[in-house]
Design a protein that fits this description.
The complex is a heterodimer of chains A (107) and B (271).
Chain A: E1 6-9, E2 13-18, E3 21-26, E4 32-35, H1 37-45, E5 47-51, H2 52-64, H3 68-84, E6 88-91
Antiparallel strand pairs in A: 1-5, 1-6, 2-3, 3-4
Helix pairs in contact in A: 1-2, 2-3
Chain B: E1 11-17, E2 20-26, H1 29-38, E3 51-57, E4 70-74, E5 77-82, E6 85-90, E7 95-100, H2 104-122, E8 125-134, E9 137-142, H3 149-154, E10 161-164, E11 167-173, E12 176-180, E13 196-207, E14 212-215, H4 218-228, H5 236-252, E15 255-260
Parallel strand pairs in B: 2-3, 3-7, 9-13, 13-15
Antiparallel strand pairs in B: 1-2, 4-5, 5-6, 6-7, 8-9, 8-10, 8-11, 11-12, 12-13, 14-15
Helix pairs in contact in B: 2-5, 4-5
The chains are: A alpha+beta (107), B alpha+beta (271).
């Protein structure tokens, strides 16, 4: 059985949902990223306390009607990619929340 | 050894842009005169200033002003440098110093940087855009070099007041974003009027074969706004402030794509 992974939003990121797009800006590199729908769900659910497999099962699978095992593999790869860009934090233990508050959705 | 110390004359000028007054101290009367000419219309008669900079003039030397500017923060002080100047500024004491030769470009760059730092904390920004006031409302025209900032400024009708043809000064005042005139000029080399008005719209410029205005999706507006925002600091907190300011602006101010032909009729659609 593989280890649980926990994901949290990096406190070094500023983010805002505009229209249908989640835009995040890295405070480290001043780079603006646009998250795809899967990454947006992952970002929104990344509270540092919910394991990644639960996020996949509860949030991603129902949304995209995908096989849970395959979805988890994809989500792990996505989380690592987002972590490389400083957007998410990944740990095998729960992560104390210093995440930025999610900002308002533009109507 | 009393009586041997030479008396040094000290001069100062208060330059107020966007309602933010900066006092510049110098010991060089010619430099002072140059500043008075350069910032005519933005020189304040009030002795009080929010920030003070002492300018130490250095002998002219080869320095490339096209070298990228570096702005870093360390132990509560901002350090700014480019090929042609070095400056420090401590926000807590509101005092700084500039080392540069007697030219207008270096201090102009320092003032822009200081204003971006001050504005970011207040939810504002400097934007690569022309801006003008018409019917009591300010309109911004953003774009990279060649997009048409100078052209749209040159075509402005007589009832429009030009705030700048190059760099707009946008402050957050309550729930409004307000554009102020700046002395930061582009190809027109004409100082903006020292006045202000609430921002009614931001137009992203594109030159074309017709005059038309199209809405811009919020996310695209944010991307283009950030791409045109002047930002110098290598500082995480400043990046986050700038992002939030841009998001708030896009939330409150309509953003359009303005495709235009280079003739005055484009202004029939504005105001």
């Amino acid at each position: 059985m593989s280890k649980k992974l926990y994901v949290a939003r990096s406190p070094r990121i500023a983010a805002r949902m505009l229209g249908e797009e989640m835009l995040v800006m890295s405070g480290q590199s001043s780079t603006l990223f646009t998250l795809n729908p899967t990454a947006t769900i992952l970002w929104q659910a990344a509270d540092g306390a919910t394991p990644l497999d639960e996020i996949v099962e509860r949030r991603i699978c129902p949304e995209f009607d995908v096989n849970p095992e395959e979805a988890l593999r994809d989500a792990e790869a996505l989380a690592e990619d987002l972590a490389k860009h400083g957007i998410l934090l990944i740990s095998e233990n729960p992560i104390a929340s210093k995440s930025p508050a999610q900002e308002q959705h533009r109507p | 050894m009393r009586g041997l110390a030479a008396q040094v004359d000290r001069y100062n000028i208060v330059i107020a842009i966007g309602g933010v007054a900066v006092r510049v101290n110098t010991t060089d009367a010619d430099f002072l005169e140059m500043l008075q000419r350069r910032y005519a219309g933005f020189v304040s008669d009030e002795p009080e200033a929010e920030f003070t900079f002492d300018v130490e003039l250095t002998p002219p030397a080869f320095a490339d002003p096209d070298v990228d500017v570096r702005v870093t923060q360390h132990a509560g002080r901002w350090f700014m440098e480019r090929g042609d100047f070095q400056a420090e500024w401590e926000p807590a004491t509101r005092i700084g110093n500039i080392r540069q030769s007697a030219n207008p470009y270096s201090i102009d760059a320092v003032l822009r940087i200081v204003h971006t730092l001050v504005l970011a904390r207040q939810g504002g920004f400097l934007l690569h855009s022309a801006s003008a006031v018409r019917n009591g409302k300010a309109f911004l025209f953003a774009g990279v070099s060649g997009a048409g900032k100078t052209t749209i400024s040159r075509l402005a009708p007589s009832d429009a007041t030009l705030l700048t043809d190059e760099i707009s000064y946008v402050r957050r005042l309550g729930s409004d974003f307000v554009a102020f005139g700046t002395p930061f000029t582009g190809e027109l080399a004409k100082l903006g009027e020292n006045t202000s008005a609430p921002v009614a719209a931001l137009y992203l410029l594109a030159q074309g074969l017709e005059n038309r205005i199209d809405p811009v999706a919020a996310a695209d507006a944010l991307r283009e706004l950030l791409a045109n925002t002047l930002f110098f600091a290598e500082d995480q907190e400043m990046v986050q402030w700038a992002f939030r300011a841009a998001c708030d602006f896009v939330d409150r101010v309509p953003v359009y794509r303005l495709t235009f032909m280079p003739d005055a009729r484009v202004w029939e659609m504005i105001g």
